[in-house]
Request: fold
Amino acid sequence: FNSLNHDMTLAEFKFIWYMEYSHRMWGRVVGLAYILPAAYFWHRGWLSRPLKGCVLALCGLVCFQGLLGWYMVKSGLEEKPDSYDIPRVSQYRLAAHLGSALVLYSASLWTGLSLLLPRHKLPETHQLLRLRQYAHGTTALIFLTALSGAFVAGLDAGLVYNSFPKMGERWIPDDLLAFSPVLRNIFENPTTVQFDHRILGIASVTAVTALYLFSRKIPLPRRTRMAVTSLLAVACMQ
Reply:
């Protein structure tokens, strides 16, 4: 209010305040919804030895996620002598917070599905091994794309260019490497951050499509085929 939004009303401030407050409370509820039942199952002796390791790791991730969220928000309240625009959190901490959330969610989902759905006993053919490698590579690419989205959000890079597929009148903008050293552009130049996110997004959709087409050539269980088809549908919608 003092630095930028001089005309903000109390009602407008309450809106963003409750957004933040709800996010914090929801995160705490999620943590309790995981940790309390896990402690109960552990006490009752319902967890196998390998599962206890997974439970401890996921509990640690839940706590780490909350701590990282506090660390991220803290960066938005610090004075930045080299920045005079909109106060914002560190894009590095935002990406770390999002990345750890994705890891926590994926690990929880993987653990839950491993318990609910028995693993298929499939012959380890060359095609199946290649499909698994492609799937792992696609997963890593999607994860990297999501992290690049956090940098776009943290820098408000989405406001720089609003045309697609070109950026303004050019395919490759002039200020792509405006910062020095060059590596700094990848993380701090809004133009480069948006450009990278576009390229990664297109690459992700291409990789998912290729994964789907390759999977059609392999005899797979219905559950696996449904998962690959769903992945393509969500990638197109995204």
In short: The chain has two domains: 18-117, 119-237. The helical segments are 10-44, 49-75, 91-116, 126-154, 183-188, 190-215, 222-237. The longest helix spans residues 10-44. Residues 14 and 20 are 10 Å apart (CA to CA).
